[in-house]
Amino acid sequence: MSFRIWSELLGLRGTLDICTLRSEALASGVLGDPVERLVGVYLPPGYDPQASRRYATIYCLHGHGSNLAKALSTGPWERNLVQQADSAMVDGSLHPAILVLVDGATRLGGSQYVDSIQNGNVAQHVAEEIVDEIDRRYRSISRASARAIVGKSSGGFGAFHLAAQFPKRFSALASIAGDSYFRLTMPMLFPAAQRSFERHDGDLAAFLEEFEREPLRSDENYAALFILACAAAYSPRSNKALDVAFPFDLRSGEIDEEIFARWLAFDPAEYDADKRTALAGLSLCYLDAGRRDEYGLDIAARILARRLSLSGLRVRSEEFPGGHRNTSGRYIGAFTALLEVLDR
């Protein structure tokens, strides 16, 4: 089913479709997340389903704690990424393209877009199920050279992960303050998470239930939820709900090097030769971060850019004066860079 909504409400010259897709890949998840998912599809001005013209496609991944509705939210002085892209396509500063907005929300706030026995096969859901459905329903150019993937924060990490895991699906990626260089950025959150879990005597179900009930949530609990989501993605122990391993002792907070090594294996800054080889076919890795990023992800982006460049990848890296939040305006730079290298 597909239905067109919000185009007039958002003041779009193009069209916004919201599609429903029932996922087989997500059925193995054990956290109770729905297998029927919504997908936002922006069609550029002039799109005609009966015409011969086809378009490049950019897949957009939101960050942890977000969803499709939040990605489409707007206000009197704010424009979401679809509104900004629509305006740029109308004035000719951005090539017409199809934008696909993935809804990656889970009970834990997100899955990092990684296949796991806790969350289900999320990467497969995005890179295979959604891509195939978009190519079936819309006038997209159905080859990797015309597909890119972009995300912010956890979505930026997801863009790297999906490009490395499915190199025949995407030919370019962009990461806006994406999770990386875990050796620096992850331990910054461990103390807050440990304190929060300790208040619940390590009972993760009790922590999660309280988090869901709270009308006002503390920064410590937000940090704990993110670390729990990462553990479900990077270090699950079984397919029993919330049976995960943490890279620190829940009582003392001492780093568990063995578990942390499992997390580092997912870190784009630590990619092994096989994953770097998978990325070698990309026409562009675009990195962007605010120089005052609260989580140190600007430093992570610098380190990642240098390491990828040394591996021979084509990297473009930019910085801006802001921090980690209110960065929706950065998508236009990413879209522009990606569409310069995609087949159109």
Provide a quick synopsis of the model.
The protein is α/β, with parallel strands linked by helices and 344 residues long. The protein contains twelve helices and eleven strands.
Characterization of this structure:
This protein is α/β, with parallel strands linked by helices and 344 residues long. The protein has 2 domains: 2-180 and 269-341, Rossmann fold (3-Layer(aba) Sandwich); 184-264, no CATH class. It contains 12 helices and 11 strands. Strands 1-2-3-5-4-8-9-10-11 form a 9-stranded mixed sheet, with helices on both faces. Helix 11 links the parallel strand 10 (284-290) and strand 11 (315-320). The longest helix is centred in the middle third of the chain and has 16 residues, at 122-137. The protein is globular, with a radius of gyration of 19 Å. The relative contact order is 0.14. The mean pLDDT is 96.
Question: Which keywords apply here?
Answer:
344 residues, alpha/beta, Rossmann fold, 2 domains, nine-stranded mixed β-sheet, two-stranded antiparallel sheet, 12 helices, 11 strands, 17% strand, globular
| SSE ordering | EEEEHHEEEHEHEHHHHHHEHEH
What is the name of the CATH architecture of the largest domain? Answer: 3-Layer(aba) Sandwich
Going across the major beta sheet, what is the strand order?
1-2-3-5-4-8-9-10-11
Strand content: 15-25%
The third-level CATH topology of the largest domain is Rossmann fold
Question: How is the topology of this model organized?
Answer:
Layout: E1 2-4, E2 15-22, E3 36-43, E4 57-61, H1 68-71, H2 81-90, E5 98-102, E6 115-116, E7 120-121, H3 122-137, E8 147-152, H4 154-165, E9 172-176, H5 182-185, H6 190-199, H7 204-213, H8 219-234, H9 257-264, H10 273-279, E10 284-290, H11 297-310, E11 315-320, H12 331-341
Parallel strand pairs: 4-5, 4-8, 8-9, 9-10, 10-11
Antiparallel strand pairs: 1-2, 2-3, 3-5, 6-7
Helix pairs in contact: 4-10, 6-8
